[in-house]
Automatic annotation (TrEMBL):
Organism: Agromyces mediolanus (Corynebacterium mediolanum)
NCBIfam families registered for this protein in UniProt: fmt (TIGR00460)
Gene label: fmt
Pfam families: Formyl_trans_C, Formyl_trans_N
Stretches assigned to the Formyl transferase N-terminal domain: 7-179
GO function term, MF aspect, one: methionyl-tRNA formyltransferase activity
Domain Formyl transferase C-terminal: 204-306
Protein name stated in the entry: Methionyl-tRNA formyltransferase
Catalysed reactions, semicolon-separated: L-methionyl-tRNA(fMet) + (6R)-10-formyltetrahydrofolate = N-formyl-L-methionyl-tRNA(fMet) + (6S)-5,6,7,8-tetrahydrofolate + H(+)
GO CC annotations, alphabetized: cytosol
Length: 314
């Protein structure tokens, strides 16, 4: 069986399963490209990316580059890779780097292309209420996420899973999909098919994207909450103070008079051992919250200190 010299580019935790899977394959992993160490935590300690940490553990040479410029291109080309593999690196691959490996570059992308091209496919898919999620391995081309697709996997949407949980699952399943494509390329059996259909786009989310709109139906509010969790995070404003919504779910009937049924959008109502908030059509239960300047806490405990008639701002 033919073995390829691989260079792998990736940065976040979602790329680590693919890195580990390729390192354990029949192919030779000659280098890893990742973004530079970043300051994390309150003390802003410079910390290697998850991919950098995994590469160190695997004893694979690592190139840390904020962008794939001429210097990074020269370093990668010097490794003489047969194939470049990229999973959520966080930067664009342009010529001449795009053509540097003999077989070019392939990309594992966490969407059903051409849906949700861009940096945040899982988040946007969940926010949009899609019925299924997936991943695709495609040939990298100059246009964003537009190359022909070698393989894809589809999974029914889990209406209880957050973007983080969905991405974790797809990262593991996608690693196997990616490894299969690399093997097929090595064996000369890989077939790529052009994308078909109208593309949609998934730009990086900002903090503003996490604000919950209580005037929408409960299902749409929960879609957004799940789509922005854990990053950039869901939140709402109460009396000028931002409150992070760390965990929320559709309110179950309590058997008592339905306090949630009559709530106006954004209205908060403590009910026994839980805290409800109104939407356009049904109540949502807040499970865990984090008011600004405080630690994460039970929403029910936080709700006991709220004045009667408290309501999130529109």
């Amino acid at each position: 069986m033919t073995s390829l010299r691989l260079v792998f580019a990736g940065t976040p935790a979602a790329a680590v399963p693919s890195l580990r899977r390729l390192a354990a394959s029949r192919h030779e992993l000659v280098g890893v490209v990742t973004r530079p160490d970043a300051p994390l935590g309150r003390k802003r300690v410079l910390t290697p990316s998850p991919v950098a940490a995994a590469a160190t553990e695997l004893d694979v040479p690592t190139i840390k580059a904020a962008r794939l410029d001429a210097e990074a291109t020269a370093s990668i080309a010097a490794l003489e890779p047969d194939l470049g593999v990229i999973v959520a690196y966080g930067g664009l691959v342009r010529e001449p780097l795009l053509s540097a490996p003999r077989l070019g570059w392939i990309n594992l992308h966490f969407s059903l292309l051409p849906a949700w091209r861009g940096a945040a496919p899982v988040q946007h898919s969940i926010i949009a209420g899609d019925d299924e999620h997936g991943a695709a391995v495609f040939q990298l081309v100059p246009e964003l996420d537009a190359g022909a697709v070698f393989a894809a996997l589809r999974r029914p949407a889990d209406r209880l899973a957050t973007a983080g949980e969905t991405l974790d699952r797809l990262a593991v399943e996608g690693a196997e999909l990616l490894a299969g494509v690399v093997d097929a390329l090595a064996d000369g059996t890989a077939v790529a098919r052009p994308q078909s259909g109208e593309p949609s786009f998934a730009p990086k989310l900002s903090l503003d994207d996490g604000r919950l709109d209580w005037t929408q139906p409960a299902a749409r509010v929960l879609d957004r909450y799940r789509g922005v969790t854990p990053e950039p995070g869901a939140w709402a404003m109460l009396d000028g103070v931002r409150v992070k919504v760390l965990e929320a779910r559709l309110a179950e009937p309590s058997g008592a008079p339905e306090a949630g049924a009559a709530l106006v959008p954004g209205e908060l109502a403590p009910e026994r051992r839980r805290l409800l908030v109104g939407t356009a059509d049904a109540a949502i239960e807040l499970v865990r919250v984090q008011p600004a300047g405080r630690g994460a806490m039970s929403a029910a405990d936080w709700g006991r200190g709220l004045p009667a008639g408290a309501r999130f701002e529109a």
